[in-house]
Design a protein that fits this description.
Strand order of the largest sheet: 2-13-11-1-10-4-7-8-9
Radius of gyration: 23 Å
Shape: globular
Helix content: 25-40%
Oligomer: single chain
Strand content: 5-15%
Distance between the termini: 52 Å
């Protein structure tokens, strides 16, 4: 009986939120005193930081949002609530995520490289490698003995940010996409969900989570056909249920916000601080948004890719996100221009332009709606007297995504008005991804390129901080766990936690850098390089600004790694990656290659024998 009651929760609790949250009164923030209690001390080493008042934490993750998709980073899309966080905090203009969803989330939760904690690649990519017998995948091992670094869930020795905060006396809540609970099995011929890796098992006191990597943003139609992205699985407090049990008025971004607000309100008088994680699925495809949000964008993208991209870059220079002398990447030359890129706007037919403009209108609507919902969270914090005591961090999980939703190319849509409505499954394609990634090269999963891993990020610190100059020092998503623990005065575990050996944290605390008035504070030792790999592609950022890059090019064959030569860029002068300097400085190439080899060894990276082909839908515009 209790199980049935729990399954009914998704339908019933959403309906109660409006009245409940309207009653929120001015109230409480975090408690005072040292941050870590007895439960967190077991197995920890290193001193705790004594702070006057423990801050709350609100971590906001957008899904597949490009570098220039919010107003503070140059976008024409109105995002006043996100932009306001910049006025009260600071932007991080050189913040790096992984090139794909779950690896970023794994690093965020653990403070370590994704290959060390079970998320070396997304589960669908691991499945493809095994099925293709792309050694060592499918050759040295099959689904029943996938190496732990690629298992699709956090390994046993990985730390968990919510667990650390919970053990230190915090309330811990999440709503949104989890994407960290897969395992592999020969019995299923691929992946399946692992209950031991659900959010509550990892330390969230309350959670409402999408387990899948993507899903429809609206509830499945009642009594109608169920599409591919309607067949998703959710959990509330680790009790799973199918998307067909979502309330009829469900829309992902609003409903996740409703849930998180209800969790925050439920314990507002407890005197304990909170750690909250808003893991939105917007603007990930399939592109879907409420009618009113789509209508507000009508006609805004009729001028096409090049005009919008140029305006964004000009605005970025005006806002100081980019220096005035920044040289942007020109993007892929089209086939008509002798390259491999998709059609330029001027090469599209009238009908093709209309379809592409509509797709971008829906994408912009999703971003605008996301901003509105973030505004609701901030308003709640202000109205309850908790805003000043809450650290708010916003970021995207990777660069913009050009990939079509389940192969449903935008060219297949014949009814423009249906694009973006419940049941539609479209994406906006490579050229709009190029706009979102402005001013950088390429997009999601093209790991060696800046547009794949450079994401918009900003932080509002605790207290009455006014806006500070943007921080241009390189920082990584795995830095956030040690940063937040530092801010909360919680000791960072080193070798063990609660009697168990742990995967060492390799991120560093950004606390001092973020509180600095300098635009280029020191974050890492002056000799330390930064490296990352995904599907055989990768980069090494040297401490002196040189970047070694290996990445595929859409439309170009990748039969062997000889088709993916290492390139060298001076990112201090050319972060747009417009001039390959490898031929001029072989000495630097050789030195950075050694750093790459050390990274691959230390992080237990498995390089596929054959580089996977660059993702592309040949039928899409």
């Amino acid at each position: 009986m209790q199980k049935n009651l729990r399954r009914a929760t998704p339908r019933t609790t959403f309906a109660l939120l409006g009245g409940l949250l309207a009653l929120a009164l001015a109230g409480c923030g975090g408690d005072s005193g040292p941050a870590a209690g007895d439960s967190s001390a077991a197995g920890n080493s290193g001193p705790e930081t004594l702070i006057a008042k423990r801050p709350n934490f609100l971590v906001i993750l957008a899904d597949d949002m490009g570098y220039s998709d919010i107003g503070a980073f140059g976008s024409e899309i109105a995002t006043p609530n996100i932009d306001a966080l910049v006025r009260d905090g600071r932007m991080l203009t050189r913040f790096y995520a992984a090139p794909a969803c779950s690896p970023t989330r794994g690093m965020l939760m653990t403070g370590a490289d994704s290959h060390r904690v079970g998320l070396g690649a997304m589960e669908n990519n691991v499945t493809a490698l095994v099925n293709a017998r792309n050694a060592p995948f499918g050759v040295d091992f099959t689904y029943d003995n996938i190496p732990p670094g690629y298992g699709g869930h956090l390994v046993d020795g990985a730390l968990s940010m919510p667990q650390l905060f919970k053990d230190a006396g915090y309330h811990t809540y999440m709503a949104g996409k989890w994407h960290l609970a897969y395992e592999f099995s020969n019995a299923t011929g691929g992946s399946r969900f692992l209950p031991a890796a659900y959010p509550k098992k990892k330390g969230f006191e309350r959670s409402f989570a999408l387990l899948d990597g993507a899903g429809a943003h609206f509830a499945p139609p009642r009594g109608g056909p169920v599409g591919r992205y309607d067949g998703t699985t959710y959990t509330e407090d680790d009790v799973p249920f199918p998307a067909t049990q979502l309330p009829a008025d469900f829309y992902s971004t609003r409903s996740y916000t409703d849930k998180l607000l209800s969790y925050l309100e439920s314990n507002r008088g407890s005197g304990k601080p909170f750690f909250a994680y808003a893991a939105y699925t917007a603007p990930h495809w399939p592109l879907q948004a409420p009618d009113s949000d789509i209508a507000a964008q009508k006609g805004r993208y009729d001028e096409g890719y090049d005009v919008i991209r140029a305006r964004r870059i000009a605005k970025m220079k005006q806002l100081g996100v980019l220096p005035q002398n920044f040289v942007e990447n020109a993007g892929l030359a089209s086939v008509a221009e002798g390259g491999t890129g998709k059609k330029r706007w001027t090469e599209l037919s009238v009908a093709e332009r209309a379809r592409q403009a509509r797709a971008m209108e829906v994408y912009a609507a999703m971003v605008s709606n996301l901003d509105t919902q973030i505004g609701r969270l901030v308003t709640y914090l202000r109205n309850t007297g908790q805003y000043e005591d809450t650290v708010i961090f916003f970021m995207s999980d990777n660069g913009a995504d050009s990939n079509p939703a389940a192969g449903a190319a935008i060219t297949a849509a014949t009814d423009l008005d249906s694009i973006g409505k419940p049941g539609s499954a479209v994406a906006y394609g490579e050229r709009w991804a190029e706009v979102s990634a402005a001013p950088f090269r390429l997009w999601k999963t093209f790991t060696g390129a800046e547009g794949s891993v450079s994401v918009p990020a900003m932080i509002k610190l605790q207290g009455k901080y006014q806006g500070r100059v943007a921080m241009a020092s390189p920082a990584l998503v795995k830095d956030l766990l040690p940063t937040f623990l530092d801010m909360a005065g919680i000791a960072l575990p080193t070798q063990q936690y609660e009697g168990k050996a742990i995967v060492p944290v390799t991120g560093v605390s950004l606390r001092g850098a973020l509180q600095s008035d300098s635009g280029m504070p020191m974050v890492r030792p002056p000799t330390e390089s930064i490296a990352f790999e995904y599907l055989g592609q990768g980069y090494v950022n040297g401490p002196d600004g040189w970047k070694l890059s290996r990445t595929a090019v859409p439309g170009m064959p990748t039969r062997t790694y000889a088709d993916l030569p290492w390139k060298l860029f001076n990112t201090l002068e050319d972060r747009g990656e417009t001039k390959d300097r490898a031929g001029e400085r072989p000495d630097i190439v050789d030195a950075l290659k050694k750093d790459w080899e050390r990274y691959v060894l230390d992080s237990k990276v498995l390089i596929p024998a054959t580089p996977p082909a660059a993702k592309r839908d040949a039928s899409a515009l």
